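Loading example: each entry is read as two labelled lines plus one structure line.
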Amino acid sequence: MIDPLSVQVRSMVINSSVILGFISISAMFLIWWERKVSAHIQNRLGPMIVGWHGSLQSIADTVKLLLKENIVPAGADKMIWWLAPFFVVVPSVMAFVTIPFARNFVVHDLNVGILFITSITSVCVLGIFMAGWGSNNKYSLLGGMRSAAQIISYEVPLLLSVVVVIMEAGTLSMQGIIQAQEHGWFILKPNLAIAFVIYFISSTAEVNRVPFDIPEAESELGAGYHTEYTGMKFAMFFVAEYTNLFIVSAVAATLFLGGWQGPFLPSVFWFLLKSYGIIFLSMWVRWTLPRVRMDQMMGFAWKFLTPVALLNLLISGWFMLR
Amino acid sequence: MEKIFRKIKNAYLGMISLFIGMRVTIKNYFAPSVTLEYPIKKKKMAPNFRGMVDLKPEACVICYQCIKICPVAALDLTHKQMVADGKKKNEITKFTYNAELCCFCGLCDEICPTDAIFMNKMYEVSVYDHNQVMNIDLMNENKYKHVDANYSLAAEIKINDLNTVGIIQKSPVAPVAAVAAAPAVSAVVSPTPAPEAPKPTSTNKETA
């Protein structure tokens, strides 16, 4: 006789270990890939020594970070400083709960899936601000404040573009959104294509990437909110950054590119292909554009992106009423 | 209204410039790398690169020209007259080179009448101790082994012999017989070129 609770626990353990394994491997792969893409765009070679074309470089870096000393800055707000990395990592891990990797693989297909992801990833900003505040460092604090302003501002156009998709699909469930795209991806419709562009720009800002990487602007703030973090705590910020990048790309693939749908190949392959394709686009943009100024960025969010997103919402609503 | 139009125009121009920039970056993405995996792959040095002073011991005629011309007195040469088989013969007793004094001007290389003294292509000459580069015995075949394990006198001599930069090459006289032997008909249709004088061999054949 099988105890139903033990089955539940077992499935929970399996799911969480699969997801944690995927997160760490994906983050390490993305760090390596980012270095390679940046190197090739700048006509360099990038990491070449460790493994084939430096493919094991991230593992070497992880080992290095694990062995590093954990330095607490003098005058730091210890509790907040210590908690901040967890506030950044945990939400990004939690967001994986509703990401549909394949036709039959989603940890829990909540009926408010997309709402869950957007709300849980918003918690990251709290961790970043805590890191900035707790570090007792003016650059970290500036980085944290900028990050809070940026993420809260860009959440508005991002959600407005997601709302268009929800209107079109008629459901908040991630699997439901994919099933609604059975007869054509959402990106093929003009109003949803605009929504995709808005989503892509806003998500770039959400994950603090160039051209919107002012929270960690190297040339202005040292490294921004994670200046004072060393060793594994720094690695947690780093992993969270790349995990968030994967999440926004996976959500973009789900919302606009039909998720795991695709011919011939297994569905998980299609999902990863689309997600990493969007990540590559993000990296490509990153190594093309310079960083924007703080006021330019805020002005762009509130004066341009939000009105366009609202207009797009209006037009989509009119399309649906017609 | 005009403001909105300007805004839309700005956004449009921004998008266009983004696409142009992305085209440039993707072109560079697939372009070959300009950097080298340095310690593993090394660049060939220029033909006239002046590295460490090196010597072909058997070519030296003990004329002391290099000692005289050396502006920093980095070279030190002494010799002794020896009698072998009833013949008097000069033999080098000591020929040392102080790389710490050397200013790498290349005058010894230029002045040497037999091209015995030359400058090799070594450029990684970091050592842990001054003594390792202070009194280098030029007569020793493995004089730079302690600086660079891959050093080989024979290879350096070969590279030096291939270096023809600055040397006026006398083109050998084209054999007249070969031209005369060419059939007259073909000479009219397509004049066969006289066998060219051997070109100076490529100077890039250096060991990596």
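Chain A has a mean pLDDT of 87.
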